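REVIEWER CHECKLIST
Item 1: Sequence provided? yes
Item 2: Single chain? yes
Item 3: Sequence as submitted:
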Amino acid sequence: MTLLALAWANLLRDKLAAALNTALMAIGIATIVLLLLFGHHLEERMRGDAAGIDLVIGAKGSPSQLVLSAIYHADIPTGNIPLAEAQRWAEHPMVRTAIPQALGDSWRGFRIVGTTTAYPALYAAGVREGRLWQAPGEATIGAAVAASGLAVDDSFSGVHGFSPEGHVHGDSRYRVVGVLAPTGTVIDRLILTSVESVWAVHGTAEPTDPEITTLLIDYATPFAATTLPRLVNSQSQLQAAAPAVQTNRMLQLLGVGIDGVRAFAWLLVVSAGLGVFIALYHALEARRYELALLRCLGATRGEVLISLVIEGVLLSLAGTLLGVFVGHLVAELAGQWLGFAATEGLTGWQWLPAESWLLAYGTAIGALAALVPAIRAYRRDVTAVLKSA
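Item 4: Structure as written out by the authors:
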């Protein structure tokens, strides 16, 4: 009988203990895998949504709020800014492109964004059906909006604010002229129209002092990163916020909570390792005569030690592999159930480099847990054991 077969046979002798230790290890590993997948997905989404946008210019207020509302469309805008002042910065020599946004309305929770056709180009969003908006009152919708029931040639009225219970602009309706292909970015959840359409809905079709909400800036030169934000913040009543800086700050804040859950998951893994240690320690006492007979039949001290270490490795490896599988399965099911697989790009069928280290760590914990009982068996005097029988 090989050492591997011997270790496997010993584990099957106490199936309940082996199952409990494997399950505990699997729960901890699955939790860590879920955190890795969701954390990776969140970071990819946040950086992808901000790609191509070097600076956001808007009304004074919180820089994080400005970035959240203008790029991720996940907060209330800080206010409106004069179009003339925005154009001043849009025409600055350090600016390559400037995309305006007029925000403030929504439809069933999906935000209506008055902008230019340069906005969908930021996310390489092609038209799946119909076309991009052209005339006032026309709208092109993202893939997630289309999935909610809107289609080409449908018409709808926007709601003031971002709550479905807000005031309905019933006297002004948009007509859907196109649907964008899914991109896995924030644009999938938006309703796009012209800035003039937003002005018209609010009764300012020909405003004397037109306003927009934000300006999305792409630098013409790397030197602008150190100069333009300072100029905007010091020489105007506007505010400039760098998405890269604010995104990193938000990811760090989210990371604090994720790290806490990850620490708890590692505690479960270590507890599983302790369970392996206790199980093998007690099994060693129960099998001391059996191990002594193995020595008498020709097994060396090293072979006895290795067989016990293999038991620990098998337990931890089984728990680790099961945990990795369950973690990926839960992530995939969550993406499908929440509808994020198609529109958000959330999937469990991806392998992250950190998971390779997770497999190594999980297996090592089992090996270390088995090492103390194995060393004790290695040092035990066979003659003394047999005499006490």
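Item 5: Key structural point noted by reviewer: The first helix runs from residue 3 to 13.
Item 6: Recommendation: ____
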